[in-house]
Amino acid sequence: MKELNLVTKIHVYAYNELSETDKKLVDEAKSATQRSYSPYSRFGVGAALLLANGEVVSGSNQENVAFPSGICAERTTCFYAHSRYPGVRFVKLAIAAFHNGAFTPHPVSPCGACRQVLAEYEKLGGEKLEIILYGDDEVYVLPEVSALLPLIFDEDL
């Protein structure tokens, strides 16, 4: 038998320790939570994506009574960004969540489907996609998607 140990490196910051660029991206993700359509879960998630051309695209989760017909904020954002700016690399993605009248104290991370989508766009761009997970008490910064999904499904297997 062989054992494989996977290590994920996550930098933990307070919001005020972030760069101005990262603060702006987080602020846009927080703003996007207010555009969430989440009458069933009452859990609004927003995402903001910085593109290599300097554009910032944001989106929010959109629920539907015919569950699971909704879509997460991360996929809403990525799909819109790629359809609007095909061929432009994704640089950084910030994610925030709003629940019970406040932003979550700790960061929330993307679901498995979103992690796989993020991996696809990171690969498509040819460079690492930094992930910023916002919480009121702390912010996680991950250097690349594999920090969220270390055993990525890939057609090159």
Strand content: 15-25%
Instruction: Please give the count of helices.
Output: 3
The H-and-E topology, N to C, reads as: EHEEHEEHEE
Helix content: 25-40%
* Oligomerization state: single chain
Number of strands: 7
Shape: globular
Average pLDDT reading: 96
Q: How many strands, what sense, and barrel or not for the largest sheet? A: 7 strands, mixed
Query: Are there runs of 5+ residues with pLDDT below 50, and where?
Result: none
Structural class: alpha+beta
Describe this protein's structure.
- The chain is an alpha+beta fold and 157 residues long.
- It has helices spanning 20-33, 73-84, 112-125, and strands at 11-13, 43-51, 56-60, 90-99, 102-103, 130-134, 139-142.
- It has three helices and seven strands.
- Strands 1, 2, 3, 4, 5, 6 and 7 form a seven-stranded mixed β-sheet that branches.
- Strand 6 and strand 7 form a beta hairpin.
Can you lay out the helices and strands and say which pair or pack?
Elements: E1 11-13, H1 20-33, E2 43-51, E3 56-60, H2 73-84, E4 90-99, E5 102-103, H3 112-125, E6 130-134, E7 139-142
Parallel strand pairs: 4-6
Antiparallel strand pairs: 1-7, 2-3, 2-4, 4-5, 6-7
Index terms:
157 residues, alpha+beta, seven-stranded mixed sheet, 3 helices, 7 strands, globular
Structure summarized in a few sentences:
The chain has helices at 20-33, 73-84, 112-125; strands spanning 11-13, 43-51, 56-60, 90-99, 102-103, 130-134, 139-142.
